[in-house]
C-alpha cells in the first residue's frame, strides 16, 4: 500500500521546520553587471570587436587611396581694435570693448566669409573659369552639359565651392585672423588665400569710405536747413529791436550804456560835492583864522605873502633895536607890514568865497545828474521788459549758430575722410604654396580608424550583450535565481602548460567547499529516513558543465570518505536497449540494489536513466522515489543526481520533489540569462525553488 502524499519529503522537509540556511541571510545583489564583468564581455565578443575594427580600417585605407590630395595655404591678418584716428571726430570712433577687442575680431570672421569679400576674390582671380570651382568638372560638368547652366549659376556654384573650401579662424588670445584655403593645387590655394585677404582689406576700406561719404551727404543735406534757421533767428532779433527802438552798441543797448555813464558821473559828482561841502564847512568853522585851513596852506599867494610878512617882521625887529620906534624907516616898515596883512586877509576871504562858489556849482551839477538818471531809469524799466524777450531771441540765435557751425565743420571733416584709408587691419603673413598635402592624412586616418573601430566594436559588443545578456558574475546569478552561488569551478578547456594539477586541486577545493556549505545549511532531524540528496540541473547547452559539476560533487564527497550514489538521468538516453535504471526504480519494477553499480576504481555507485517503456503516474513515482531514497539511506550517505535539462524532461519531477538541494549550473560569460530563467521557472513549476547555483568559468 502506498503512503499518502503527506509522507513525501517536501511536505515534512526539514527546511520547513528549521530556520533558513546561513547563506540565505545574505541579500541578493541588485546590480546586474559589475565593472569587472566588462572585460569578460569584451573577451568573449573579441571576434566581433576585431572584425569591426578591421572593416573600418580597410574602408579608411580605401578612402585614403582613392581621395585626391588637397593642399592648404594660410594668410594672416592682424586687426587692431583701436582704429586709426585720422581726425578728432572720426566717423569710425576708436573704442575698445571691455574684452580687449576679442568680440570685434570675432565679428570680422563672419565679414571675411561674407559674399561681398568672396565675390571680390573670385573676380580678382577669375575663379569662375576654374573647373574645380565652377561645377564644370567631374559629375557637376556632366550635369551642367545635360541640363545647361548660365553665368549666374556658374557664379553661384563658384561661390558655394569657395565657401566650402574656406576656413576663417582666430587664434586663441590673439587678434589675428587665419584665412585658410584648401584646393587641389598648392599654388591656387595660396593665390586664393592672398586674394581673399586683400579683398577683405579692400572691402573694409570701401565700407569706411562709404560710411564717411554717407555721413557727409547726410550732414550736407542738413546744412541748408540750419542756415535758414540761423537767418530766421537773426531776422527775428533785428525785427524785435526795431519794433522796440532798441539800439545796440558793442553788443549792449545804448540806453543801458548811457545810464551806466550817468551813474558813473553822478557818483563822481556826489563825491566832489561831498568834498567841497566838507571844505566849506571847515572854512566856516575856522571863522577868524581861515589861514589855518589846508587850502590857505596850499595857496602859493598866501605862502608868498607870508614870506614877505616874515621878512618885514624881521626888519622891524632890527630897526627897533638900532633906530628906535620913531625912526622913519621903522614907521615905513610898520606901514608895509600893515598893508601886507590886509592883502593876506583879502586873499583868505577870496579863498573862502571860491570854495563856496565851487560847492554851489558842484551841488547844482549833482542835482542835474540826479534828474537825468531818474529820467533814464524810468525809460530803462520799459527797456528791461522788452530785453527779456530780446535775450530769449538772442539765445535762440546763438544756439542755431552753434549748431550750424558744428554741422559745417563736421561736413568738412567727413568729406575729407572719404579720401583717407583708416582701415585698422593689415596682412602680416602672405600665403605660401604648401609643400605637403593636408588631406588625406593617412597615418592619422588609420590611427583614428583603429581606435574608432575598437570603440565601435566595444559598443556593438555591449549592445549585443544588452540584447542577449549572459551570466556575468556570481552576484548576477544570485539575483536572478534568488539563491546563493556556492562556488565557481575553473574550466578545463583553457589550462596553461604545467598548471593542470593546480586546476584539479582548485576544482576539488571548490566542490568540497560547496558541499560543506550545503551541509552547514541543511537542518535534518536525526531520525530522518531519507538519505541527503543533491539534484544538479542546467540549461540544455550546459550539459557538459552540468555533468562535470555533478560528478565533481560526487567525487569530492567520496574523497572525504562518504558513500555516494550518483544518478545520471541522461546516461543511456537514446540507446536502443538501455540497462535498467532510475526510471525502472520509479516505476517499481526494480529495487535500488539491482540497478546500482560501482564505477571502476571509484567508491561512487552509478545509476543510469533506465528504460522508458511505460509512463508512470506522478503519485506512484513520488512513492517509489521516497522508497528509493529510504533504501539508499542504508547503503549511502549522499545521493547526487544529474537531473539534466528540467524544462525538457518531466520524468525528473519525482526526483526534484524528493531532493534536499537543487543546484543550477551555468557558464560564466556564456550561458544566456533567459536560459537560466527558463530552468529556474521549470523548477518552480515542479513545485520547488533552486537552493543554490554552481558556476563554471571556462576562462580560468
Automatic annotation (TrEMBL):
The keyword Transmembrane applies. It is found in: Cell membrane. Residues 223-286, 352-410 form a coiled coil. Pfam families: GNVR, Wzz. The chain crosses the membrane at residues 47-66, 444-467. Residues 32-123 form the Polysaccharide chain length determinant N-terminal domain. It is a multi-pass membrane protein. Residues 383-463 form the Tyrosine-protein kinase G-rich domain. SUPFAM superfamilies: P-loop containing nucleoside triphosphate hydrolases. Keywords: Cell membrane, Coiled coil, Membrane, Transmembrane, Transmembrane helix. InterPro entries: Bact_polysacc_biosynth/exp, GNVR, LPS_length_determ_N, P-loop_NTPase. Its main location: membrane. This is Wzz/FepE/Etk N-terminal domain-containing protein. The keyword GTP-binding does not apply.
Amino acid at each position: 500500500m502506498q503512503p499518502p502524499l503527506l509522507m513525501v519529503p517536501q511536505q515534512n522537509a526539514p527546511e520547513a521546520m528549521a530556520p533558513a540556511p546561513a547563506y540565505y541571510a545574505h541579500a541578493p545583489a541588485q546590480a546586474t553587471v559589475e565593472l569587472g564583468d566588462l572585460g569578460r564581455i569584451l573577451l568573449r565578443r573579441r571576434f566581433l570587436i576585431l572584425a569591426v575594427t578591421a572593416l573600418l580600417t580597410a574602408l579608411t585605407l580605401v578612402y585614403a587611396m582613392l581621395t585626391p590630395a588637397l593642399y592648404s595655404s594660410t594668410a594672416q591678418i592682424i586687426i587692431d581694435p583701436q582704429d586709426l584716428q585720422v581726425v578728432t571726430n572720426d566717423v569710425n570712433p576708436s573704442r575698445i570693448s571691455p574684452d580687449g577687442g576679442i568680440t570685434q575680431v570675432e565679428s570680422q570672421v563672419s565679414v571675411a566669409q561674407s559674399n561681398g569679400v568672396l565675390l571680390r576674390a573670385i573676380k580678382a582671380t577669375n575663379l569662375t573659369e576654374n573647373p574645380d570651382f565652377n561645377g564644370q568638372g567631374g559629375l557637376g560638368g556632366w550635369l551642367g552639359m545635360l541640363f545647361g547652366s548660365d553665368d549666374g549659376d556658374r557664379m553661384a556654384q563658384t561661390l558655394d565651392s569657395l565657401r566650402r573650401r574656406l576656413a576663417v579662424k582666430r587664434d586663441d588670445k590673439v587678434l589675428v585672423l587665419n584665412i585658410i584655403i584648401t584646393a587641389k593645387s598648392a599654388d591656387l590655394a595660396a593665390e586664393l588665400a592672398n586674394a581673399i585677404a586683400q579683398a577683405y582689406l579692400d572691402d573694409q576700406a570701401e565700407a569706411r569710405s562709404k560710411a564717411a561719404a554717407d555721413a557727409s551727404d547726410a550732414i550736407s543735406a542738413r546744412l541748408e536747413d540750419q542756415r535758414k534757421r540761423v537767418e530766421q533767428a537773426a531776422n527775428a532779433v533785428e525785427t524785435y529791436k526795431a519794433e522796440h527802438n532798441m539800439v545796440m552798441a558793442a553788443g549792449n543797448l545804448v540806453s543801458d550804456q548811457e545810464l551806466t555813464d550817468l551813474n558813473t558821473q553822478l557818483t563822481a559828482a556826489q563825491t566832489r560835492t561831498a568834498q567841497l561841502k566838507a571844505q566849506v564847512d571847515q572854512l566856516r568853522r575856522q571863522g577868524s583864522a581861515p589861514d589855518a585851513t589846508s587850502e590857505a596852506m596850499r595857496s602859493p599867494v598866501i605862502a608868498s605873502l607870508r614870506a614877505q610878512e616874515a621878512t618885514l617882521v624881521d626888519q622891524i625887529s632890527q630897526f627897533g633895536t638900532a633906530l628906535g620906534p620913531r625912526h622913519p624907516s621903522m614907521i615905513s616898515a610898520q606901514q608895509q607890514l600893515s598893508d601886507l596883512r590886509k592883502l593876506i586877509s583879502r586873499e583868505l576871504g577870496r579863498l573862502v568865497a571860491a570854495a563856496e562858489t565851487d560847492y554851489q556849482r558842484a551841488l547844482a551839477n549833482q542835482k542835474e545828474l540826479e534828474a537825468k538818471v531818474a529820467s533814464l531809469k524810468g525809460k530803462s524799466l520799459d527797456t528791461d521788459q522788452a530785453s527779456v524777450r530780446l535775450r530769449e531771441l538772442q539765445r535762440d540765435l546763438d544756439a542755431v549758430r552753434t549748431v550750424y557751425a558744428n554741422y559745417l565743420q563736421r561736413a568738412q571733416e567727413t568729406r575729407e575722410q572719404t579720401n583717407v584709408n583708416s582701415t585698422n587691419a593689415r596682412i602680416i603673413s602672405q600665403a605660401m604654396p604648401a609643400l605637403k598635402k593636408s588631406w588625406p592624412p593617412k597615418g592619422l586616418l588609420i590611427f583614428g580608424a583603429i581606435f574608432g573601430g575598437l570603440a565601435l566594436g566595444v559598443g556593438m559588443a555591449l549592445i549585443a550583450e544588452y540584447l542577449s545578456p549572459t551570466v556575468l558574475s556570481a552576484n548576477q546569478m544570485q539575483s536572478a535565481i534568488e539563491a546563493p552561488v556556492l562556488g565557481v569551478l575553473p574550466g578545463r578547456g583553457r589550462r596553461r602548460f604545467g598548471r593542470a594539477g593546480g586546476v584539479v586541486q582548485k576544482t576539488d577545493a571548490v566542490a568540497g567547499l560547496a558541499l560543506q556549505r550545503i551541509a552547514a545549511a541543511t537542518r535534518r532531524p536525526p531520525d530522518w529516513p531519507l538519505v541527503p540528496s543533491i539534484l544538479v540541473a542546467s540549461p540544455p547547452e550546459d550539459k557538459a558543465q552540468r555533468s562535470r559539476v555533478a560528478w565533481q560533487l560526487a567525487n569530492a564527497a567520496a574523497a572525504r570518505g562518504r558513500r555516494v550514489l550518483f544518478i545520471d538521468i541522461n546516461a543511456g538516453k537514446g540507446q536502443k536497449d538501455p540497462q535498467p535504471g532510475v526510471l525502472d526504480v520509479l516505476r517499481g519494477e526494480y529495487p535500488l540494489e539491482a540497478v546500482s553499480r560501482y564505477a571502476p576504481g571509484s567508491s561512487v555507485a552509478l545509476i543510469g536513466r533506465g528504460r522508458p517503456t511505460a509512463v508512470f503516474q506522478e503519485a506512484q513515482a513520488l512513492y517509489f522515489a521516497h522508497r528509493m531514497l529510504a533504501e539508499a539511506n542504508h547503503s549511502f550517505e549522499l545521493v547526487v543526481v544529474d537531473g539534466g535539462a528540467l524544462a525538457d524532461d518531466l520524468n525528473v519531477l519525482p526526483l526534484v520533489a524528493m531532493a534536499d538541494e537543487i543546484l543550477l549550473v551555468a557558464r560564466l560569460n556564456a550561458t544566456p540569462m533567459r536560459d537560466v530563467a527558463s530552468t529556474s521557472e521549470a523548477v518552480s513549476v515542479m513545485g520547488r525553488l533552486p537552493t543554490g547555483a554552481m558556476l563554471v568559468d571556462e576562462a580560468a
